Amino acid sequence: MEWSIHQVVESTGITSRTLRYYDQIGLLVPSRTGAGGLRYYDQARLIRLQRILLLREFGMPLADIADVLAGEADDIDALRDHRRRLLVEKHRIDTQVHSVEATIAALEKGRPIMPKHMFEGFDHRKYDAEVRERWGDEAADRSNTWWNGLGAEGQRAFRQQLEELNTAWDQVIAAGVAPDSEQAQAIAAQHVKWLGASIRPDELSKGKVKGIVQMYVDDERFAANYNRVSPAGPQFVRDAVHHWADQHLDD
């Protein structure tokens, strides 16, 4: 049995452009190409695609994935290895759930929170695969190097800066000022400076900054940071930063 590229896209959620790129680099070649260049994938290809996507979830570059798959002779053994990796990830998520539950319990009972335990299981690299997909392997590797180089204290300080920024955004959103107001633009400047901590100065372009803050609107995970006062909060932050970028950054 075979599935067309359109069926694979619908089933997996990845784009046809990604599948064509995987074909181009030899990572996932279709089982055949039909009339009009339509690609088809058989069961073996779908199993290979599942393995590719699993390894991408773990932040592995495509070149390394190709090497790993080339060294795997048996599908069942390979899938067992992926299952082991997933169980490790499940343990990490379970640890996160436990840390959040402990924080809730401490707050409900009026006990002091324990920062050492609040962040157990949390890992900056959890978005690594997504960063690689969106910005490329080089940017992801630099980001990981930068984050690890901060150390525990630096990472806590970075998170604290984010929370302070979010609180400042909440205040100006609640005040009802415009995104291009003096108050909002002052916070936008701080926000771009915060973003710039993990981006090389020569890459802090108008387009990159605008692309990042657009995700605050498009992705509910990021939107949750800015809709605490108003559902329109993410759009406000985006518009404010866009305005600041137009005034101060090069293309």
From TrEMBL:
The record, for SMART domains, names: HTH_MERR
Taking every annotated instance into account, which residue ranges of this chain make up the domain HTH merR-type?
1-71
Task: Identify the keywords attached in UniProt to this record, alphabetized.
Answer: Activator, DNA-binding, Transcription, Transcription regulation
Decide whether keyword Transcription is in the record: yes
UniProt keyword ATP-binding, yes or no: no
Q: Spell out the molecular function terms from Gene Ontology.
A: DNA binding; DNA-binding transcription factor activity
Q: What is this protein called?
A: MerR family transcriptional regulator
Q: Which organism is it from?
A: Enteractinococcus helveticum
Question: What taxonomic classification does the UniProt entry list for its organism?
Answer: Bacteria, Bacillati, Actinomycetota, Actinomycetes, Micrococcales
